[in-house]
């Protein structure tokens, strides 16, 4: 990342290698208040207050996860905000304030951790600032003591409309048309926490009318969608992906959403039902859109089945938006720097990337840091997308069992596919995010 020599000032730490932000934050203050009240109130009351305080701060800071760590004599609380962990509290542990016990009880666990290991997962709901906050809790026995991770479910994020997830106008028009096909299968891919579920839900909401029967199979159901029949996978009761799919097909469906395809059976039933008059949306775990095809080959799905049922695929990531309060304008990187960056790419792809970065008229920004963004330089996130639509050329390559790079090259050339990197550069050009953030997020794919 350091080669993006366009950073104007040296004082800005790069994302990921930041010195811990200095929080004079009120969570620390709140904690010391509670410690002072010790002896004057029962410990459990203080623990209830402390857990509420932590959750209130988590919601206020838009944290997706709260880590509560016992490290020997220390209590450490960290929040994941916009995908990055931040220290919120680090203090001597206080045996008189049984915080972990309180959270364990909320999650439905026994107050004390089990003496022999057992997997503990629970959830609870809490009203905070007039909103029902869903929290999923996981416990992990470290050698230093118990570690609790609280996933704060952001129902607002999951309820976004299709035009709110960050797709530009062209991609939005294409997707709206694509999801109105009477049959076929559309894949979404992306790492954990890349907003795949948000996109799937947004698509279902977009086509939902009383005239069609939409059924989903999910693990877990994260958000209730009105007018849509959602079902939860349960290995315990035998309601597996394949059983679920077979059952759905007897429920007269028009549209089926399958949370994830991870084996041959699920893939085969899904692709076959896409051929017989159903529209399917699903996710699959790969690094980009083109490699979905190779993943299906690996599972043993025959090429003709992929070629005839697949409508297209979308890959996505979330990038942090640069803080509007403190970001600064930046010059584009120099040509030699860009040449160095694209030198290992496929030549045609590299040429497009280079032109995109250097084309005049960009409003590049660099991050700085201010109290508003807790010195990270970023605030909030937005999706970047790679939309691959099926066409005759790609279909031909699928039937030939072609490798991912050939499929990708063909999609760029004949389908005008914009890769994640290209879409990210466009968002950096408008000053929504920075080039260094785009490189950070897409680095493993270039
Ligand atoms: Zn800022």
Detail the topology: elements first, then pairings.
Elements: H1 26-36, H2 43-60, E1 63-71, E2 74-81, E3 84-92, H3 99-106, E4 121-128, E5 131-142, E6 145-153, H4 155-158, H5 169-178, E7 184-189, H6 196-207, E8 214-218, E9 229-232, H7 241-249, E10 255-258, H8 264-275, E11 279-283, H9 291-299, H10 303-309, E12 310-322, E13 328-329, H11 335-342, H12 347-358, E14 365-366, E15 378-389, H13 392-399, H14 404-414, H15 420-429, H16 435-442
Parallel strand pairs: 7-11, 7-12, 8-9, 8-10, 10-11
Antiparallel strand pairs: 1-2, 1-6, 2-3, 4-5, 5-6, 12-15, 13-14
Characterization of this structure:
With 446 residues, the protein is an alpha/beta fold. It folds into 2 domains: 26-153, Beta-Lactamase (2-Layer Sandwich), CATH 3.30.450.90; 157-445, Rossmann fold (3-Layer(aba) Sandwich), CATH 3.40.50.300. The chain has 16 helices and 15 strands. The chain has helices at residues 26-36, 43-60, 99-106, 155-158, 169-178, 196-207, 241-249, 264-275, 291-299, 303-309, 335-342, 347-358, 392-399, 404-414, 420-429, 435-442; strands at residues 63-71, 74-81, 84-92, 121-128, 131-142, 145-153, 184-189, 214-218, 229-232, 255-258, 279-283, 310-322, 328-329, 365-366, 378-389. The strands form 3 sheets. Strands 9-8-10-11-7-12-15 form a 7-stranded mixed beta sheet, with helices on both faces. Strands 3-2-1-6-5-4 form a 6-stranded antiparallel beta sheet. The chain has a two-stranded antiparallel ribbon with strand order 13-14. Strand 1 and strand 2 form a beta hairpin. Helix 11 (335-342) runs antiparallel to helix 12 (347-358). The longest helix has 18 residues, at 43-60. The protein is globular, with a radius of gyration of 24 Å. Zinc ion (ZN) binds next to loops.
């Amino acid at each position: 990342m350091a080669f993006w020599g366009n950073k104007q000032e040296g004082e800005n730490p790069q994302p990921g290698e930041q010195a811990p932000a200095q929080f004079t934050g009120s969570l620390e203050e709140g904690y010391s208040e509670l410690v002072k009240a010790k002896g004057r109130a029962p410990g459990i009351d203080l623990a209830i207050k402390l857990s509420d305080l932590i959750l209130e701060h988590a919601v206020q800071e838009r944290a997706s996860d709260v880590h509560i760590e016992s490290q020997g004599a220390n209590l450490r609380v960290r929040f994941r905000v916009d995908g990055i962990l931040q220290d919120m509290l680090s203090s001597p542990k206080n045996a008189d304030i049984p915080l972990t016990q309180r959270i364990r009880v909320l999650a439905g666990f026994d107050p004390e951790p089990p003496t022999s290991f057992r997997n503990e997962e629970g959830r609870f709901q809490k009203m905070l600032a007039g909103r029902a906050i869903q929290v999923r809790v996981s416990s992990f026995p470290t050698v230093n003591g118990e570690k609790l991770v609280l996933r704060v479910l952001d129902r607002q994020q999951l309820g976004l409309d299709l035009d709110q997830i960050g797709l530009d106008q062209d991609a939005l028009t294409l997707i709206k048309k694509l999801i109105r096909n009477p049959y076929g299968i559309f894949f979404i891919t992306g790492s954990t926490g890349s907003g795949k579920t948000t996109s799937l839900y947004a698509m279902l909401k977009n086509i939902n009318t009383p005239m069609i029967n939409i059924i989903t199979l999910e693990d877990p159901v994260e958000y209730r969608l009105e007018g849509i029949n959602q079902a939860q996978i349960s290995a315990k009761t035998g309601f597996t992906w394949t059983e679920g799919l077979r059952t759905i097909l007897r429920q007269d469906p028009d549209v089926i959403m399958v949370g994830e395809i991870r084996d041959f059976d699920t893939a085969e039933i899904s692709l076959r039902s896409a051929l017989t008059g159903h529209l399917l949306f699903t996710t699959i775990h790969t690094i980009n859109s083109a490699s979905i095809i190779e993943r299906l080959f690996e599972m043993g799905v025959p090429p003709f089945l992929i070629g005839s049922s697949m409508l297209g695929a979308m890959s996505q990531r979330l990038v942090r938006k640069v803080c509007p309060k403190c970001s600064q304008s930046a010059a584009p990187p120099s040509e030699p720097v860009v040449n160095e960056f694209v030198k290992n790419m496929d030549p045609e792809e590299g040429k497009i990337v280079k032109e995109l970065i250097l084309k005049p008229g960009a409003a590049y920004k660099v991050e700085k840091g201010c109290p508003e963004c807790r010195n990270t330089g970023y605030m909030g996130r937005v999706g970047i997308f790679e939309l691959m639509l099926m066409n005759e050329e790609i279909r031909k390559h699928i039937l030939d069992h072609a490798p991912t790079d050939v499929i990708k090259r063909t999609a760029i050339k004949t389908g005008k596919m914009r890769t994640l990197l290209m879409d990210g550069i466009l968002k950096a050009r408008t000053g929504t995010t920075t080039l260094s953030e785009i490189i950070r997020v897409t680095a493993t794919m270039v």
